[in-house]
Amino acid sequence: MGIPAWVWFTVAAVAGVAGFALLATDRAQRTARNRERRRWAALRGWQFEETDHVLPTRWEAGAIAYYGTGLARDVVAGSTFTADGRRQVYVLDHETGGKVNSVLVGVRCRRALSVVIELWLSTVPFQRDNDKMPMPDLLGPVGSRYAFVTDVPAARKIITPDLIDAAEEIGGDVTVVWLENDWVLAAAPPNSSPARLERLLRDIGELADVIDPFDPDPSEHEEPVAEDDEGGEVYRPSFGRKQP
């Protein structure tokens, strides 16, 4: 005997309600995260943008190579002080396929490196199939992480005990930390709180200080900062502009 039509109707209705509930929950979480990120940016005197399609194209390695370029959501842009001076920063939700896979935190250095260095947790399936940015060569363990680099001899000169110590402070919830061009970046879990992102910014800033020590003559690519109404400095980004 066949299954009555009303049974199929009930199953379809339950599935529809469940799907609607999941969508509503996801929308509520995104709205709450948006408000929280926006308030955080305002408290720091930083700029906020809901969506940026171009910003993720600045980078090709690390989480970008693993998940794909995608787009940036709930972007915070500004600058912050580190021990070796003021540095430009970005914080953004990295979204691919309609899903936020991580929160990217980036701190900009004054000079670019000639090698890409990726530091992955050993528990992460970090292998990837990406023709544009294939997996770099395995250098070996760096503290609790594994280093993959595009130039082994050059990377050995950069990966000093101080760099290892700074990388160890970043935390086991950050799947990958990577150095690319003039940026130090990290991928934190989705829904990371502003308090966690503040700590991560400090840790990434310390790593930037290790590879980019203070230079009294800023490089020509360093972007200017503007004075705010209270005399402090606030970075004024141009969202969507890919810079050299």
List the helices and strands and how they pair.
Elements lengths: L4 H40 L2 E6 L9 H6 L3 E12 L2 E12 L2 E10 L8 E5 L15 E6 L2 E5 L2 H7 L2 H8 L7 E5 L2 E6 L5 H18 L13 E3 L5 E3 L9
Antiparallel strand pairs: 1-2, 2-3, 3-4, 4-9, 5-7, 5-8, 6-7, 8-9, 10-11
Helix pairs in contact: 4-5
Polypeptide structure, described:
- The protein has 244 residues and is of the alpha+beta class.
- It has one domain.
- Helices cover 32% and strands 30% of the residues.
- It contains five helices and eleven strands; from the N terminus they run H-E-H-E-E-E-E-E-E-H-H-E-E-H-E-E.
- The chain has helices at residues 5-44, 62-67, 152-158, 161-168, 194-211, and strands at residues 47-52, 71-82, 85-96, 99-108, 117-121, 137-142, 145-149, 176-180, 183-188, 225-227, 233-235.
- The strands form two sheets. A nine-stranded antiparallel sheet has the order 1-2-3-4-9-8-5-7-6. A two-stranded antiparallel ribbon has the order 10-11.
- Helix 4 (161-168) runs antiparallel to helix 5.
- The model is unreliable at 17-29 and 218-244 (pLDDT under 50).
Q: Can you give keywords for this protein?
A:
transmembrane; 244 residues; disordered C terminus; alpha+beta; transmembrane helix; 9-stranded antiparallel sheet; two-stranded antiparallel ribbon; membrane; Secreted protein
Tell me briefly what this model is.
This protein is of the alpha+beta class.
The H/E string reads HEHEEEEEEHHEEHEE
Uncertain spans: 17-29, 218-244
**Count of individual domains:** 1
Cα Rg: 21 Å
- Please report the total strand number as a whole number: 11
| Strand proportion | 25-35%
State mean pLDDT (0 to 100 scale). 82
Count of DSSP helices? Answer: 5
- The structural class is alpha+beta
Shape: globular
The neighbouring-strand order within the major sheet is 1-2-3-4-9-8-5-7-6
Protein name: Secreted protein
Keywords: Membrane, Transmembrane, Transmembrane helix
Transmembrane segments: 6-25
Region (Disordered): 210-244
